[in-house]
Design goal:
Length: about 140
């Protein structure tokens, strides 16, 4: 297998919004996100474990090659901002992070034929765990 594809968990409300996003976005980025969603386990927002990366979650991940950690917020494209550390779910790293839980890793092919591997270190903020499900 060329890529590591762990089980991912997505809330029903995130899935609904993301399907709309995919339907209104053309190109490879939407296709990548769409393929990620096809292997998702869908749960109600109130049932999602607190260590799962959902939309608008803050997540700390480690690059397994460089051992660098980075903290980002997984965002919809309209809210994405590199300066604020808000990564679009349509960006390769954003699509990769969606639905993972602490301790899980994901690997994917980056331009140049190299593999990138990330591991989820922590989810300091998740809207559902904080009771902020109205976003």
């Amino acid at each position: 297998m060329s890529t590591l594809e762990p089980k991912i968990v997505v809330t029903s409300s995130d899935l609904e919004r993301l399907r709309t996003l995919i339907d209104t976005t053309a190109g490879d980025r939407a296709d990548v996100l769409d393929s990620e969603l096809t292997r998702a386990v869908v749960v109600e927002p109130s049932e999602v474990p607190p260590d799962v990366v959902t939309m608008n979650s803050r997540v700390v991940y480690m690059d397994e090659d460089s051992h660098e950690t980075r903290e980002v917020t997984l965002s919809y494209p309209k809210d994405a901002s590199l300066e604020q550390g808000r990564v679009s779910v349509l960006a390769p790293v954003g699509a990769a992070l969606l639905g993972l839980s602490v301790g899980q890793e994901i690997e994917w092919l980056v331009p140049g034929g190299k593999h990138k591997r990330l591991r989820i270190v922590s989810v300091p903020y998740q809207p559902q765990a904080a009771g902020h499900t109205h976003h």
